[in-house]
From TrEMBL:
Domain ATP-grasp: 264-447
Enzyme class, broadest EC rank: ligase
EC number: 6.3.2.-
Protein's UniProt name: 30S ribosomal protein S6--L-glutamate ligase
Length: 471
């Protein structure tokens, strides 16, 4: 820097890398290292590149306003305070902005809640940039704590590293891609086997444990719950929800989407078009059940069916009766649906993220198979969808309150009809067919959802830092 800057004994500064657009700093040339008030300090990430996450209360007297931050660990060193006490502190690096100037500084993390200044500027941060006017304050432009009551703070921490858990029992393409993209974004992503989680359920301190240890605090959880463990998997997700962790898909949405009967009832309630569907428990109702749906051919589908298993096409009335009798003999729950002939063994998978269709593909069944599932030998290719199809997919995902969903549509003569809403859609088929980075979009959505939420309804007097209420 070419020109010296005048600093008083207290100045307003910003730490944009940490999402702190305004904070008062006490200038202390007697201290070598700068310090930032922080609590809930927790390390995470690999040993080769450790990170630290912490919470800052930038405004004295405002314990309700908390900004979560994270940064790479630069060092860990012993710092001796003015009263002679030594403390081991994590050291991080951040850009400091004062007026129109900015430069990198190092900060130690420590609890300064008992002090008026949330930040201390030591001589290392000043270097040759500053001339000190020890009898004055605010030689540089003043900032305002009011920035914390506006939406600007929501976008103030784009580089904050997150700790994300993927609940998955399989080392498959989808899990690997989520880990890969999360790490590309600078986050730490850990794969957790859902069935190895167990829960401490109580009112004051609910916890999730794993392999004998309490799991750390996560910013977000991505559920990849297999159909065979839906009940236990959703219980684990409910526990994370109780703790306050953002779950990409909630337990209620996953449970509803897995119960095909409940799923069709939810879609009917939200007036989402689907093939005519009927359900009955008594074997005496077989003929009536078939008449409710229409004439053969009919689809008979187990309620627990996944990936096309347990789905049978009955081409004649007699064949439908035989299939229904067989399922009833196994005491299996099933639906009967109208067969949409014009779909010709094809369906459309719309991938919805955050209320938007981000990709879509057309799936075609293997020769001689009416089912289009890729797991059964079907093929897929990218496809352009209509406005009506897009709106239908979005409405279906919203009906189940899912942030991520694979919505399967049939193109019928009367318009798109929803076959299924999948709460754990695979990424491999859609990424390969569309050549889109769906895993990256999911990480982007998580970043948007877990950034700090601004605290509204209070302002702070800029001069002395004392909080005042505003209406």
């Amino acid at each position: 820097m070419q020109n010296l800057m005048r600093f008083g004994w207290e100045e307003w500064v910003a730490l944009p890398d940490l999402g702190l657009p305004a904070i008062k700093a006490k200038v202390d040339t007697g201290a070598r290292t700068s310090a930032l008030h922080a609590f809930d300090i927790e390390t995470f990430g690999p040993a080769s590149a450790p990170k630290v996450r912490f919470t800052v209360q930038p405004v004295p007297g405002r314990e309700d306003l908390m900004i979560p931050c994270s940064a790479k660990i630069v060092d860990r060193r012993s710092v001796t305070s003015s009263n002679g006490e030594s403390e081991m502190r994590y050291v991080i690096a951040s850009k400091m902005q004062v007026g129109d100037e900015s430069w990198p500084i190092e900060l130690t993390l420590t609890d300064r809640s008992g002090m008026h200044s949330r930040m201390l500027l030591g001589r290392e941060a000043l270097k040759d940039h500053i001339t000190i006017v020890a009898t004055e304050r605010y030689q540089q432009p003043k900032l305002s704590y009011d920035v914390y009551t506006t939406a600007r703070v929501r976008h103030a921490a784009p580089n904050r590293a997150l700790r994300i858990a993927v609940l998955s029992r399989e080392d498959n393409y989808s899990t690997r891609r989520l880990v890969e993209e999360g790490e590309k974004h600078g986050h730490t992503v850990e794969v957790i086997d859902t069935t190895r989680c167990y829960m401490a359920i109580n009112a004051m301190s609910p916890e999730v444990h794993y392999d004998g240890k309490r799991l750390p605090r996560y910013d977000a959880v991505i559920p990849r719950i297999g159909a065979s463990i839906t009940s236990y998997g959703t219980a684990v997700i409910r526990q994370f929800e109780t703790i306050g962790v953002f779950c990409l898909n909630g337990s209620d949405g996953i449970t509803a989407s897995r119960d095909k009967l409940a799923a069709h009832q939810i879609m009917a309630r939200h007036k989402i078009r689907m093939p005519n569907t009927a359900f009955a428990a008594s074997p005496k109702d077989t003929d009536s059940l078939m008449r409710l749906v229409g004439t053969a051919p009919l689809i008979v589908k187990l309620l627990e069916s996944t990936q096309g298993k347990g789905v049978v096409l009955a081409e004649t009335k007699k064949a439908a009766q035989s299939v229904i009798d067989a399922f009833r003999g196994l005491k299996a729950n099933f639906l009967v649906q109208d067969f949409v002939k014009e779909a010709a063994g094809e369906d459309i998978r719309c991938f919805v993220v955050g209320g938007k269709v981000v990709a879509s593909m057309k799936r075609t069944g293997a020769e001689g198979d009416f089912r289009s599932n890729l797991h059964r030998g079907g093929s897929a290719q990218s496809v352009r969808i209509s406005k009506e199809e897009r709106e239908t997919a979005v409405r279906a995902a919203k009906a189940f309150k899912l942030n991520m969903a694979g919505v399967d549509l049939l193109r019928s003569e009367s318009g798109p009809k929803v076959l299924e809403v999948n709460s754990s859609p695979g990424l491999e088929g859609i990424e390969i067919a569309t050549k889109k980075n769906i895993a990256g979009m999911l990480i982007d959505h998580i970043e948007d959802r877990v950034r700090p939420t601004p605290i509204r309804g209070r302002t702070v007097d800029d001069d002395d830092g004392s909080p005042t209420l505003s209406k």
